[in-house]
Amino acid sequence: MPRATRPLPATLLAAALAGFCLLLTAPVARAQIDFLWDLNNKRVPLYAPIPATVRITNLTGRDFTLGPGGNAELLFLAEDSFHRKAEPPARPRPLFDQPVTVSNGVTITFIVDAGRTFRIVKADSYMLAPAIAIDGAPSLYVGKRIPLEIQPGLEIVGRDFAAPPRRRHASLRLIHREQSNYAFFRLDNPDAFLCYGVYELGSIIDFFKPQIDLDASDVFHVLFQNTPDRFIHSTFSYEGQPLATEVYIARAGSIALSRSADGQVAVTGGIRFTEDPSMPGYLSAPALPPSTPQTPYAPTSLTPPESDQSAPAPAPAKKHFWQR
Fold first, then answer.
1. Of 7, 22, 108, 248, which one has the fewest beta carbons inside 10 Å?
2. What tens digit of pLDDT does each residue of 124-171 get?
3. What's the pLDDT band for 320 if we cut at 50, 70, 90?
4. pTM for this structure?
5. Distance in angstroms (rounded) separating the CA atoms of residues 249 and 283
């Protein structure tokens, strides 16, 4: 037999209705800073830059300035697969080289290295989110979280140079993403457990074994194959700073890093792309060698040639044995 329910008291019912109406009529709080951002690459090697494209809209009702001397700070919150928050770096580096003022109601877009605001020392899956603090307030304006995968990278070439304490381990590491393989140059000091930097060099194919060498001026040289007929030559200082990048056209069996008698290293067996003088920043393909002139094709005439009296007479046909 069903139990009889007691009706709600009139005062309690009136209070519930009043609270519900107040909830419907209450204003909805708008986000004071609107974030629209994404990682340029969601899979990067350990210690490599983590470029992020960020678009923010200032809805705070006042202006704020990011960067050196500004009253606002942009940072990225990182959390690993065990929900542990990444620590700030021991030596913070600014995201902006100069102040960036964001006026109220204005939208700006920029690209920064998100990895400068936290310290990650192991490969794992992470969740990243941008945040802005204004005037040192404890509350943050936080954007959405995006996954990031950090890998150690597959070392395909590695060499040790010099002796302690100046020893260096230079390596070329491979990361697979977006159905392609990408090469990264990494420079370490194994004695000090220090990584000087990891730099992306471009896509790589495996028809040519990459080469790494150190010249007499303490400059590292890296050569690898980018496309079937294109090779990339990059140079780095002994402290891991990028110096220059050159593009060559050659065959896999002909190009190489060669050392001269004075210890200098150069690329041999290839033709270097040059910068187009009419379009600075763009490379021009090397001029092709002149083609071998070919003799025009002469069709064979179907008309039998006129008989030549000086030509020898044809030999008589050999008779079969039954014709003898």
1. 7
2. 999 999 999 999 887 889 999 999 999 999 999 999 998 888 899 999
3. low
4. 0.74
5. 12
% of residues, the chain, pLDDT over 90 = 65
d(CA 20, CA 17): 5
| Longest pairwise C-alpha distance within the chain | 140
DSSP letter for each residue of 56-81:
EEE-SSS-EEESTT-SEEEEEEEE-T
Contacts (Cβ under 8 Å, ≥6 apart) of 199: 48, 184, 185, 186, 234, 236, 242
Residue 29 vs residues 59, 130, 279: alpha-carbon distances, Å? 12, 20, 51
The domain defined by 33-151 folds into Immunoglobulin-like (2.60.40)
CA distances in angstroms from 271 to 53, 79, 200, 249, listed in the order given? 36, 47, 23, 5
Closest CA to 76 of 137, 143, 174, 149: 143
Residue 192 near residue 236 (C-beta atoms within 8 A): no
The domain ranges of the chain are 33-151, 154-284
For the beta sheet containing 194-203, the strands, ordered from the edge strand earlier in sequence to the opposite edge, are 154-161, 168-177, 180-189, 194-203
Q: Residues 195-210: pLDDT tens digits?
A: 999 999 999 998 899 9
The pair of structure tokens assigned to 199 is 């730099």
CA distance 56 to 48: 25
